[in-house]
């Protein structure tokens, strides 16, 4: 489990003599810890812009999916981060009012491919035997998709199950190839 705080509210975790971080310090620390973005570095602003663009794409994807249907949203798009940017920063992002977002529609996964993409190794029995070995065999080309041990970020969560599992995102092409 990672994160500087446990599942208790932060104000109860900080030592009494430790001052609360300023909003600016908290912002810099958040982007550094959650995204690996050093806001003082020359490429920090560029990385942050990429994060903002990806988040706006995610909002647009959700709108397309729910208001136009699944076929209007991209089948292959996914948000490539574990956390969201700060809303304060999104509002000042110059592309916020006129984002340029284009999705490649692509093709949906087949049912067993979708299950392989979302199920943990402990649920492999829900799939036909011909796919079960892919979850835990040393010869599986996609074994890294199903780690036995991984970190859970519980920073800021209020309930034990509210953490973010820090596992690798799957490679859809590798998944489909392994299932052939």
From TrEMBL:
Molecular function terms from GO: 5'-3' RNA exonuclease activity; RNA binding
Region (Disordered): 1-23
Domain of life the protein comes from: Eukaryota
A biological process term (GO) from this entry: nuclear-transcribed mRNA catabolic process
Recorded GO CC terms: nucleus
Domain Xrn1 helical: 29-179
Name of the featured protein: Xrn1 helical domain-containing protein
Species whose genome carries this gene: Noctiluca scintillans (Sea sparkle)
Taxonomic placement: Eukaryota, Sar, Alveolata, Dinophyceae, Noctilucales
